[in-house]
Amino acid sequence: MNYTFLLYSDPTKFADMTAEDWAREKEVYGAYIGALQAAGVFVGTDWLQPTSTATTVSMENGTARIQGGPFAETVETLGGYFIIDVPDLDAAIAWAEKCPAAQYGKVEIRASAMGGA
């Protein structure tokens, strides 16, 4: 079964990060990706650009409404995701607990409506 981890965090906590801080952050996530790959559960991941680059599209009475920015203005924003293939929710929770984003934000787990890989 595929599960997607939606990674939410407060982007203001990263505003003062140096190039060295970002390099360390990439190393931490690289190790997590390596662990997922070694376990044979890794499907995919992406780190998203800031919400300032977002565009939201909705249809109102048959007319497209295009809005700059994310759908909801919140402190915590969606910053990326992982897709893993594990047997059940308990296994997904175990991997989410190890996700670096869980240390400073939230990891929302969603089961795929389309099944597994």
Automatic annotation (TrEMBL):
Annotated ranges, domain YCII-related: 1-110
Top-level taxon in the UniProt lineage: Bacteria
Annotated family: Belongs to the YciI family.
UniProt protein name: YCII-related domain-containing protein
Organism: Rubricella aquisinus
Species classification: Bacteria, Pseudomonadati, Pseudomonadota, Alphaproteobacteria, Rhodobacterales
